[in-house]
Specification:
Spore Coat Polysaccharide Biosynthesis Protein SpsA, Chain A, 9 helices, 2 domains, alpha/beta, UDP N-Acetylglucosamine Acyltransferase, domain 1, 27% strand, elongated
């Protein structure tokens, strides 16, 4: 079996529940946009030329956010559902073969390890596809996984199309799939908008492939909270907090002293040398690089700057887009910027 991986990230929607004029995937958590997080995860599975982002709302801005990573794009001019998003990219995708991984661009916390395990499972399976399923405390908004009495997957029913009995099921489809690409493209033309929203649902591929005599596997998620999409500002803030907690822990384990770490914000792309001390309520943002043996004072903000070894930044100092040489002291109560 051809096990080369192609990844498609669904990022064409506006995200009305976010209540924003900005496309949902352009909101930030942990110092990166949601689409940057999901693309970076995809690049752990596939080379850039095999990673595709489906764009629609604010397509130019979404492209700009990740085009430097070398990924490719599919334009979905009309948003007619998740299945339609793949159909819009058929010309670019069908010839690539192998395995087709699909997930949403608003799920920035998906662990790369889970996707790698999903691909490994599908590679060793005789199933036409494997979807990731999870028992959810509140599955509202998620498709329900329908099984037979033996536990085999029969269908995935979307929230908008489910009966009350189906919507009472707590096992949800979290929107992460791995298809055999040859079978997916053989049958994708059978998708029909036979639902109240008149959309082409990717989840309908489950029934279509089963009807064609194939099996569908469900891969259980151990930590569902990492897989769920960001739908509002509360969930965005929670994701931001988890990313920043993870980054602070990473820095401390790498030899950086952080005083009152729960008060300090460090963006994902930041690098800090050993024996540097970060005082409470400091913010280290953007693409900042801090050398060894520095001290960043309380309530200071350093953004998109380079600080050489031994720099001292006094409390309540703001440094933006600047370079500070070795052993220099800046502040307290100073502002330094080059832009």
């Amino acid at each position: 079996m051809d096990t080369r991986v192609t990844v498609v990230i669904l990022a064409a929607g506006l995200g009305t529940r976010m209540k924003s004029r900005r496309a949902k995937v352009l909101h930030q958590a942990g110092g990166k946009t949601l689409i940057e997080h999901t693309v970076d995860t995809a690049l752990s599975l596939a080379s850039p030329e095999r990673v595709f982002v489906v764009v629609g709302h604010q397509a130019d801005e979404v492209r700009t956010a990740v085009e430097a990573r070398g990924v490719r794009f599919i334009q979905q001019t009309e948003q007619k559902g998740t299945g339609h998003a793949l159909m819009a990219g058929r010309e670019s995708l069908e010839s690539l073969g192998g395995l087709l991984v699909v997930y949403y661009g608003d799920c920035p916390q998906i662990p790369a390890a889970l996707l790698q395990s999903l691909v490994k499972h599908q590679s060793h399976s005789d199933a036409a596809a494997t979807l990731v399923a999870a028992e959810l405390d509140d599955p509202t908004g998620y498709g329900r996984v329908i099984r037979d009495t033996s536990g085999h997957v029969l269908a995935v029913v979307e929230q908008k199309a489910g009966t009350p009995q189906q919507l009472a099921i707590r096992e949800g489809n979290v929107g992460i799939y791995c298809f055999r690409a040859d079978l997916f493209w053989k049958h994708v033309g059978e998708l029909q908008p036979n639902n109240p929203a008149r959309e082409y649902y990717l989840t309908d591929m489950v029934e279509i492939l089963i009807r064609a005599g194939h099996k569908i596997d469900a891969y259980p998620a151990e930590n569902p909270s990492e897989l769920l999409g960001i739908n509002n500002r509360v969930e965005l803030a929670a994701a931001d907090r988890r990313f920043r907690e993870r980054k602070v822990r990473e820095m401390m384990l790498a030899g950086v002293t952080i005083e009152k770490p729960e008060t300090v914000s460090i963006d994902d792309a930041v690098s800090i040398g050993i024996d540097t001390v970060i005082e409470p309520f400091a913010q280290i943002l953007g693409n900042t690089k801090i050398g060894e043996g520095c001290r960043i004072g309380a309530c200071s903000i350093v953004r998109d700057s380079e600080l050489a070894d031994g720099v001292r930044v006094g409390a309540f100092t703001i440094i933006g887009t600047s370079r500070v040489g070795a052993g220099v002291t800046v502040g307290p109560y100073a502002r330094l910027r080059l832009d």
